[in-house]
Amino acid sequence: MSYMFDPTPPGPVQQVPVKRWRNRRGALTTGAGILAILASKLKYLFILLKFGKVGGTLITMLVSVALYAVVFGWPYAVGFVALLFCHEMGHVLVARWQGVNVSAPMFIPFMGAFIAMRGMPEDSLGEAAIAAGGPVVGSLAAVGCLGLYGMTHQPLLLALAYVGFFLNLFNLIPMSPLDGGRILGAASRWAYVAGLPILAVIAIWHFNPFLLLILALGVLDAFNRFRGGAVKAMYYTSISPAARWAVAGGYVLLAGVLAIAMSETHTALQMLRSGGLVG
């Protein structure tokens, strides 16, 4: 299973009012109301799900947009979910190119989106390619937002570019189920362990239950990766040294580009705020 995790996206296009608790309580109440309405209509949702993969993707996308809109507004919510969709479709396209059966993207509000792999590639290099498809396509989508900002000068597009770079960089933390572990796993199985302390520090520092859940999944996945005999080990050791170095180099290059892009867009947003162009 390939996850795209979303630690509650920063809302750089909206200034947080002074009365934070009242607004948060109102947002939570509205969100609960939306969930109650959806729960009352579950039978209709199940009917729509029978229409296949597209139905499930569409429904979960709409639910995610509605809940994100409660907190961040409709324009940002639509753009944010579109960025998640681009990321997940990167996984889907590479997987299907390799002949690996995967599900359509499914969205989980305030956690992101995922695809389920219903088969496995021949080796860890194939898995790395599928994992890399998400951050690569997702980063291109963020670059697209940046390009549109250059033409229209709409602060919302700059904010979406920033969050796109941020989320794809976050996904490169070297651990599973994040993409970074699956990419670097082709270079060394220890990549599934390397990022666990990083995420543990972030999760404990911010005390984020979603991050703690991802951390728990990462520990279980790392344990399973090191279990098994010689046949399972061949999944990782059959990769040539040249391919291992290529994977590691590509990972470092992508992470470096995303870090620079995120820093630059963040600086640009700060300048807009200081000029009063972004609330």
Question: What would you say about this model in short?
Answer:
The protein contains twelve helices and three strands; from the N terminus they run βααααββαααααααα.
Task: State the total count of DSSP E strands.
Answer: 3
Strand order of the largest sheet: 1-3-2
**Helical segment tally?**
12
Rg, rounded, reads: 20 Å
Which parts are unreliable, with pLDDT below 50 for 5 consecutive residues or more?
1-22
Total count of domains: 1
β-strand percent reads under 5%
Order of secondary-structure elements: EHHHHEEHHHHHHHH
Percent in helix: over 70%
| Spatial shape | globular
Structural class: mainly alpha
Structure description:
The chain is mainly alpha-helical. The chain has one domain (2-274). It is 71% helix and 4% strand. It has twelve helices and three strands, in the order E-H-H-H-H-E-E-H-H-H-H-H-H-H-H. The chain has helices at residues 20-40, 42-49, 53-72, 74-97, 124-152, 155-170, 179-184, 191-194, 196-206, 209-225, 230-237, 241-274, and strands at residues 2-5, 106-108, 112-115. Strands 1-3-2 form a three-stranded antiparallel sheet. A hairpin with a 3-residue loop joins strand 2 (106-108) and strand 3 (112-115). Helix 5 packs parallel to helix 12 (241-274). The radius of gyration is 20 Å and the shape is globular. The two termini are 38 Å apart. Mean pLDDT is 82; it is low at 1-22.
